[in-house]
Amino acid sequence: MGIRVNLVTFLLLFCTVGHGQESEFISGTLIDTVNTEPIPFASIRVKNRAVGVISNNDGSFRIPIKFRELNDTLEITSMGYDSREIVIGRLLSDQINQIYLKPMLIQLDEVTLSASKKRRRGRNDNDRPVTAAEIISKAIEKIPLNYPFNPQSYVGYYRDYQWKAGGYTNLNEAIVEVFDKGFGTLDYEDSNTRIYEYSRNANFPTDSLSERLYDYGEYKTKTIPKAYLNSYGGNEFVILRIMDAIRNYNTFSYSYVDHLDTDFVKNHDFSLEDDTSLDGMPLFVIDIYKHNRKFMVRGKIYISKDNFEIVKLEYATYDALLGTRKISKTSRKIEDRLLYRTAVEYKKEDNKMFPSYISFSNKFEVKVPPVFTVKNVFVDFEKKLFEIAFNRVPMHFKVLKDKNYNISYKGRGIDIEKVVLADSVTVHLYPKMNLGDQALEIFLAEPEDIGKDDFRVIMDNIIDMDGNKLDYSETYSLMQFREFFVQQRKPVRQYPGKHLYMDKNWPIFQDQPIVKPDNYSDFWMNTPLRNEGAIIK
């Protein structure tokens, strides 16, 4: 009879497949004319057809080639840039088209300049907010007027993926429709989602370790440093929806923003920056800042100057400790300390603000299973010894040193008299059995009376023949992204049957109901692109 401890080794699957250009799409990349940087999260709409897409993190996008055959035009808008229209017929289908946008020249008026500073109100502007905090408070107060409280549905492109060593991995894509009963309802409880199509993109690498659920248990195989994220049953789309602090303005969204309507203003410092605009709408730009010695928050909120609609919210939380030195507000090393970042943008249609996109990303660490481990620890009552079996051949001069073993039973140490090789991967440890030695209590007892939880076995300074340290686990860092880009918005006239809804507590890519509607061809997956091509000036 024996006490055995078994360790399981996980395998890492990592493969790469070439990514070819699909002939049924036209692809492009949006680029800033001044600094030649890509422009992410820009709106690309097919004119007069109420469908479109949002550019990826690298500024790339793609649209079905059928719109060129219909002689359509693209309308491109992005915060802080001049809007642009391009006839789709000008775009090439055999390479990625580079499209340049010009940064907008902002003409600041007198009201904007005075509003950027604290000043004494006059008799005619008592109700006009002056400071940044007052502008935000006014915008939150007007959410019930500016956002839809009647049911709406949003069809769009969803994806979750990870960014590892400069490339995408574990890319999941879907076309989904969200049925939102309105801002007067609880989003998590009352909204539902229908999946039109799901695809695990095999053209990008996969990493089986990093795609597992977060693990904050004993082994911590996948964790977020200095933060905790509930997996909600593994459904990444549900996590993403919760990170829309505007939609969830009166419920908890994430730390420090907390309840947007009651906590946001009191939890942060704000300052007005130069104004900007989006598609002709003039916007206040307000910097968001918080530093509590352990964490730092940086972000921006964009609010319309006419009706105080919140158009966009960018929010990032950082670990502010770098050794013993705090990261300052302007530190260049701040991105090295990123914990999570979220961005959400709304657009105005029919005098109400509707979602355009939401993005949520967080850094996480994966612990790689150790190469060199212990397979079994066995108590041999007949021979009165401890047997330890390794999964690989250990370095003999290391494994035979008794001082490299620390064994205790019920809190008392057991002295080892000698260590003997039983075979190439197994050692026998003979304990001292003199009067008063703790080993006597073990071997004079009945085997069934010995509890394995009473044992503690620690081994140190043991390596295998290749130099791998016993039970040493390497870790590597990745970024997890979840993004949803609205392609079409419409009022809800009839809800689908409940059997068609996604199970919120189950991963989006496992055994979910998938049914394509008759108009499915109106939507498409904006799969990320990484190549360069033609220039459209």
TrEMBL record:
InterPro entries: CarboxyPept-like_regulatory. SUPFAM superfamilies: Carboxypeptidase regulatory domain-like. This is Carboxypeptidase-like protein. It comes from Arenibacter algicola. The lineage of its organism: Bacteria, Pseudomonadati, Bacteroidota, Flavobacteriia, Flavobacteriales.
